[in-house]
Design goal:
The complex is a heterodimer of chains A (110) and B (380). Chain A is mainly α and 110 residues long. Chain A has helices spanning 31-39, 45-52, 65-76, 97-101, 103-109, and strands spanning 4-6, 22-24, 29-30, 95-96. In chain A, strand 2 (22-24) and strand 3 (29-30) form a beta hairpin. The termini of chain A are far apart. Classes of the chains: A mainly alpha (110), B alpha/beta (380). Strand 1 (4-6) of chain A pairs antiparallel with strand 8 (170-173) of chain B. The structure holds flavin-adenine dinucleotide. Flavin-adenine dinucleotide (FAD) binds next to helix 1, strand 2, strand 12 and strand 16 of chain B.
Chain lengths: 110, 380
């Protein structure tokens, strides 16, 4: 992660005409929501995700992550690579608690 | 972005909830000449990886003053104070037992906590099921602490951060602290991969990585990393509000306001496995172990889908409570680490205590006198 110096915003938040655009469909997070929290000090992909829940829904960011990472980077005037990505995690697709619990038996049967 | 400064009255090493809550409390007292140095991002460590338990029951009595102060005086109004809903739910904690041996373990905890004034009691399985109906008939008994609860750790950590930022604290992320140095006997320089920073006082609260930094000025506190993992499910209809722990230790967790179940645990073998502590992916055997634990107590959750799992590390201290103390041998240095897997619930109180240690030389609101750095002794 690149070095970022964070201080209280010195200027007021400036709304944009397309701020109501939905970026994360699972959790219904808009472009304006994202721009607003970046203005308030959140500065990485994970921080924004953890605050707004974008990328935390059923698809786990597979649809929206690149878009919201891009919005944050543009607001900060840095490259998307500087602010990290959300981490891909197991399971790739949702699986029931029972499936997880039976991993040993399933292995034996195979 | 204004001119860069590398000196401040206070430098805080680590950007977790302890750092953010302390920075906030310092700023509230008018001290905002503070720089927080974080190697990755705010909440990179345990602070954004934990399950959100805000618990007094089953705590070591030495850290109970922090837990009771946090629950009694800070958590109930924290959302208002920080201007953000931290999703604090105070609906109690049930610690469940399946066997007579579990009952004994729970009774011992209850006896110790009651002696120091915590409202906690033993109840039978049916009483526990009345509080949390989704539970298995196998549950024999439980300890019940009605004033315990849970909150959203992501919201809480980032809310403390944003308030401290608004109040004038500077945060620098993406900078790794490599060591401390003394000048004329006092800790003054903080060496980093971004050059040297300088401060009158340094607060070291970098989780399990603190020990390596403390060593550079000759301070050794027995803390090691200990892995713990969490799984989160899809959103489900509301089932219960209580926080759940189990005497057998298979899992702990609860249901969030959003509807997901957040359940954590370990597989019991972590201490004996080779590890890379920069690896936050999950072990193949841990989530299944947690899942079997959950089904033992909550068979009704069998069809619920897990959507994500992750790992984090406890800063495990030799006697499972943290060091929260100024170090006389290294004047200017205050240490706060070794939270041993339960530092989130007490963090709002820890932040207050640390702000007093830094500004007034001692914590006078909350008694942290049992959490000294020099309490460890060799066995022989
Ligand atoms: C899986 C899991 C579940 C948990 N569940 C609970 C629970 O239910 N209830 C509860 O009360 N507690 C729980 N805990 C414990 C709790 O999360 C921690 O005690 C608490 O977050 C500690 O906060 P902290 O600020 O001390 O440390 P951390 O949040 O770990 O912050 C330390 C920070 O220091 C940074 N850092 C490290 N080295 C350096 C360096 N050299 N230079 C600069 N920065 C550095 C790290 O990147 C990190 O951001 C859990 C922990 C884990 C891992």
């Amino acid at each position: 992660m690149a070095k970022i110096i964070r201080r209280a915003p010195e200027t007021a938040f400036v709304p944009q005409p397309d701020d109501d655009l939905i970026i994360c469909r699972c959790e219904e997070v808009t472009k304006g929501d994202i721009r607003r929290v970046v203005h308030a000090g959140l500065s990485t992909t994970n921080e924004v995700k953890r605050w707004l829940r974008c990328g935390m829904g059923l698809c786990q960011g597979q649809t929206c992550q690149r878009n919201f990472q891009g919005i944050i980077a543009r607001e900060l005037g840095v490259s998307p690579a500087d602010i990290g990505r959300i981490t891909g995690r197991s399971p790739v697709r949702p699986a029931t608690i029972t499936t997880f619990a039976h991993e040993v038996t399933e292995q034996k049967e195979a | 972005m204004s001119i860069e400064t590398k000196s401040a009255s206070v430098i805080i090493v680590g950007g977790g909830i302890v750092a953010c809550a302390t920075a906030y409390n310092l700023a509230k007292r008018g001290m905002n000449d503070v720089i927080v140095l974080e190697k990755a991002e705010i909440g990179n460590g345990g602070s954004c990886r934990n399950a959100g338990g805000v618990r007094q029951s089953a705590r070591d009595v030495r850290e109970l003053p922090l837990a009771m102060y946090a629950v009694g005086k800070i958590w109930p109004t924290l959302s208002d104070e920080l201007g953000c809903d931290v999703e604090y739910v105070q609906k109690g904690n049930l610690r469940l037992g399946l066997t007579e041996a579990h009952r004994k373990t729970l009774e011992a905890h209850v006896a110790k906590s009651t002696r120091v004034g915590l409202e906690v009691e033993m109840i039978e399985g049916d009483d526990a099921r009345a509080i949390c109906p989704a539970m298995s008939e196998e549950v024999l008994c439980a300890s019940w602490c009605p004033t315990d609860g849970h909150a959203n750790p992501l919201k809480t950590t980032l809310a403390f951060y944003q308030r401290a930022l608004q109040m004038g604290v500077t945060f620098v992320t993406g900078v790794t602290v490599t060591g401390l140095r003394k000048v004329r006997g006092r800790v003054r320089y903080v060496d980093t991969d971004d050059g040297t920073y300088e401060a009158d006082q340094v607060l070291l609260c970098a989780g399990y990585e603190s020990q390596g930094i403390a060593e550079t000025v000759g301070v050794e506190i027995p803390v090691v990393p200990r892995r713990n993992e969490v799984l989160v499910t899809e959103m489900c209809p509301h089932l219960f509000d209580v926080m759940i722990g189990v005497a057998g230790g298979e899992f702990y967790g609860g249901q969030t306001e959003h509807g997901s179940f957040v359940m954590g645990g370990n597989n019991g073998l972590e201490a004996f496995c080779s590890e890379h502590h920069d690896r936050f992916s999950t072990d193949s055997i841990t989530a299944p172990s947690i899942a079997r634990g959950i089904l033992k107590y909550f068979p009704a959750l069998e069809g619920v889908k897990i959507i994500r799992t992750w790992a984090g590390y406890y800063d495990a201290c030799a006697d499972v409570v943290p060091v929260i103390d100024a170090i006389p041998e290294a004047p200017g240095l205050v240490c706060a680490f070794g939270f041993s897997g339960h530092g989130f619930g007490i963090a709002p109180a820890t932040g207050l205590a640390l702000s007093e240690i830094l500004l007034d030389g001692a914590s006078h609101t909350i008694d942290v006198s049992a959490l000294t750095y020099d309490r460890f002794a060799a066995k022989g």
